[in-house]
Amino acid sequence: MANNTFHPFPRLPTELREEIWRFCLPHRVSEMDYPIDWMVYDSFGPKPKDKLPCSLISTSISNARPPLLATVCRESRRVALSSGNWSSVLEEESGSRPLEANWLAANLVTREYWQDPLRDSAHLNWTTSYEADLGYQTDGHPLDSLVWEAKLVNGSASIMLGYMSDSLIEREPFDKPITWQLQSLPESCRHEQQDLAALRLLPEWLVVVRVVVIHLDFTQAAKTGLFGPLGDKFVQVVDATLPLASQLYKLAEACESRASAVTAAQDFARMPANDMNAMVKRVALKVYFDHELPKQGSRTCGLDMRSTCPRDNISDDNTGSDKGLFDEDAADTSSAMNTVE
């Protein structure tokens, strides 16, 4: 059995050790609201509520916990604490939230969640179907709230394709020119006007076209190397043009084929990234009548990749018990650097 322990690690200079710890911190997706399982999967074809691929909320809860680096030793915990904090702390430090950004919805994340201002990006799961089908009553504006959340982290954000329009059905060819009479949004489209104003404030944003579930437990996810150095990037919004998207797609398909029990098989048919990108741009043009908006971010289309089934690692306690991870009296358990192959 191979020995993956680097014993000279404690003898490295402190600055170098801390830099290595920082490299192990995940770049994660900070979700504002929980995805509703059957709403997400229904957009890819109707399925009975008791036959869904997996629980997305359990993955979101796991994704909101502090990074694993916080549990290794005092030194790594200090690095984790200096890089991130609980959402309530960052919110308090940022000042008063504007009224329009004080968005409230039934699926809003209300428990404490961990955020890393340098590495995390903000994400909104909300779509038009949530309010139309479930009758959720909301205050504030979701995209204004997303812009505020993005400012708390690295400035990047992502939304679901269904947020712009669940009713638009795009068909090939996606690059066919759009003919219309209106050259700008009419004054009557106040909701779209507010959406457009908010999106223009984001320096970079992605539109999630597809949610893919990868059936892996925590240990297996870490060994793949596709979920961060320590395997704790449970939710990833991946640019569809990157090789990582193909790698995760192949992994998801392989894991599902080997699974002992699958309640509902996923459709792994892939849309080419260029077609996906063209489709998103056409939807944005049709909804917002803005030619510059699709050009704003260098990345346009994305995939929501979730490593699920880490339930043994999830605490159902909503009281913020994870804060005990930062007990300074905890034992320093690391005398060497362990790596995962």
Automatic annotation (TrEMBL):
Domain 2EXR as annotated: residue spans: 6-85
Region Disordered, annotated ranges: 304-341
Ranges of biased composition (kind: Polar residues): 332-341
Pfam families for this protein: 2EXR (PF20150)
PANTHER family named among the record's database cross-references: 2EXR DOMAIN-CONTAINING PROTEIN (PTHR35910:SF1)
Record's protein name: 2EXR domain-containing protein
Species per Swiss-Prot/TrEMBL record: Aureobasidium pullulans (Black yeast)
